[in-house]
Design a protein that fits this description.
two-stranded antiparallel ribbon; about 35% helix; 6 helices; about 25% strand; single chain; alpha+beta; elongated
Length: about 280
């Protein structure tokens, strides 16, 4: 089975007085939509038809398509899509898979909650535990505790892992090459205001590419936050420390140059004073 990354499910709430609609979009995470009040109609599209979904805003993962009145001249591929329709009522929960385009229409006084969660894309063997039912489970009350104690680099690695899976070519293939990895890395770190160099990116790719075929398959991509976590963390930390040292050296050089200039100014002032005393 695929493993759920249960470190944080996100639980946004949605409420309206009815008559509201969403844009045609897909979510970056697995999604369970639970309706507490009212009713909803959802139109969905399998991610295998992704290229026909007409994603017009890639950064926001949504489209300008008006699902209720599709302009087939502007969005011709829509006619090739197989759509799925679901109507849910209070008490129902609907699973919306990662990267499935969907459109939501709400009716009546409406209250819903989403549970978004990440998954690892490759199978792994779950360890046996004494867990038998939810009665045996311990839940954290404050989601803010989830990030306490985690280094910044780990958040970066989780974000990069998700960014890889959210790129277009991951829908068309089960691997990425070195150039694609570096392009994704550069784009993601620009959003994160990070400044890791291309050499660092290439070093991380080489670590993840365990079979040395020049591509990262799904298992190797997942290893970014599983089996290769500590190795990648060390590389990122080392790079961060290197940048920090360079900045420190630069500051020290500036201070030394300032100090040298001050001493030169004092020497010149003293020489001028001495000359004036001799002249008098």
């Amino acid at each position: 089975s695929s493993g759920i990354n249960a470190e944080w499910p996100l639980r946004p709430g949605w409420f309206s007085s009815g008559g509201t609609t969403s844009v045609w979009h897909w979510d970056s995470y697995e999604n369970i939509n639970c309706l507490l009040r009212g009713s909803k109609e959802l139109i969905m599209m399998d991610k295998k038809d992704y290229e026909n979904g007409h994603l017009t805003n890639r950064a926001g993962s949504f489209s300008a398509v008006d699902v209720d009145n599709v302009d087939t001249a502007e969005f011709p591929n829509f006619k090739n899509v197989t759509f799925y329709n679901a109507t849910i009522h209070a008490g129902d929960c609907l699973y919306i898979p990662w990267r499935w385009f969907h459109y939501v229409k709400s009716f009546g006084s409406n209250l819903a909650v989403n549970v978004w969660f990440d998954t690892y894309r490759t199978p792994f063997t779950c360890k046996k535990t004494s867990f038998k039912s939810f009665a045996d489970a311990t839940f954290r009350k404050d989601s803010s505790d989830l990030s306490k104690g985690e280094p910044v680099e780990y958040d970066f690695m989780k974000g990069l892992h998700q960014a890889i899976y959210n790129t277009d070519h991951m829908n068309l293939a089960d691997s990425i090459d070195n150039k694609q990895f570096i392009d994704i890395f550069k784009g993601f770190q620009a959003d994160m205001d990070s400044e890791y160099g291309t050499d660092t990116m290439a070093e991380i790719f080489a670590i993840l590419d365990e079979n040395k075929d020049g591509h990262l398959n799904l298992r190797e991509i997942d290893s970014l936050i599983t089996t290769n976590y500590y190795t990648v963390y060390y590389i990122l930390s080392k790079s961060f420390i290197s940048v920090g040292l360079l900045i420190l050296v630069f500051i020290v050089v500036l201070v030394l140059l300032w100090y040298r200039r001050q001493r030169q100014n004092k020497a010149v002032t003293k020489a001028v004073d001495d000359n004036q005393k001799k002249a008098n």
